[in-house]
Design a protein that fits this description.
single chain; 7 helices; Aminopeptidase; 229 residues; alpha+beta; globular
Length: 229
């Protein structure tokens, strides 16, 4: 798997959408992916978006493979200064267990185009690098994973997540999701030992992601994990 992911990374680019960028490619990709699983109803615009997309603590990252968008993830960085994040709003009780001063990463709208899976591309791992690298860049303490039951086993077994809340309806989706969470700094080393490609890959410069610093929400920190040769 390591070699396959690295070979795929050589043909990919990560694009960060910031203020002023047209997010339409991401919204259309989301729509196509969720419609393929019948998770949302049809709409005339063939786009999927919500007010959280415009939050100041939100970062959109898409993956292009040979100039075609194949995956995307939406990130919200939440702190005591700004708790605005979709998963926190769906599972507000989770904050009762969060110590003061801790930061949270809320990755949502994790989508991979079905054609990528059919072609045997490990695009789910390429996309999974987005929240993992974001956790390192923003020095995150806790990472959330709002996932359907059928997807939870991978997070629990291989990424060090724990079950926090049972599935419930999630705004805009037909299928309920549960809440998983992990203590990033406790699990990071073990996850990188298992999947080193989730961290920075020095031999593939285009595998880096140019995250914005979000200085008004949370100070950025340089990655402290050794690069993969």
């Amino acid at each position: 798997m390591q070699d396959k992911v690295l070979e795929t990374l050589k043909q990919c680019d990560y694009q960060v959408f910031t203020k002023g960028d047209d997010p339409e490619p991401i919204y259309r990709l989301r729509y196509d992916c969720y419609r393929a699983e019948n998770s949302i109803p049809e709409n005339a615009s063939r786009m999927m978006s919500d007010p959280y997309d415009e939050s100041p603590n939100c970062v959109h990252v898409a993956v292009r493979f040979r100039d075609t968008y194949l995956a995307a993830v939406r990130l919200h960085i939440a702190t005591d200064q700004m708790w605005n994040a979709p998963t926190i709003d769906v599972f507000p009780e989770y904050l009762n267990a969060v110590p003061f001063g801790k930061s949270i990463l809320d990755p949502t709208r994790f989508v991979v185009r079905r054609e990528a899976r059919a072609a045997g591309l490990p695009m789910h791992f390429v996309a999974l690098r987005i929240p993992f690298l974001a956790s390192m860049f923003y020095d995150i303490d806790l990472a959330l994973a709002p996932v359907r039951v059928e997807h939870s086993a991978f997070y629990l077994r291989y990424l060090g997540y724990d079950v926090c809340e049972m599935p419930r309806l999630y705004p805009g989706l037909r299928k309920p999701v549960g809440l998983l969470a992990t203590k990033v700094k406790e699990q990071q080393g073990a996850v990188l030992a298992r999947y080193p490609f989730l961290g920075p890959v020095g031999s593939i410069p285009r595998s880096d992601i140019a995250f914005p610093d979000l200085h008004e929400v949370f100070p950025a920190a340089a990655p402290a994990i050794p690069r993969v040769a």
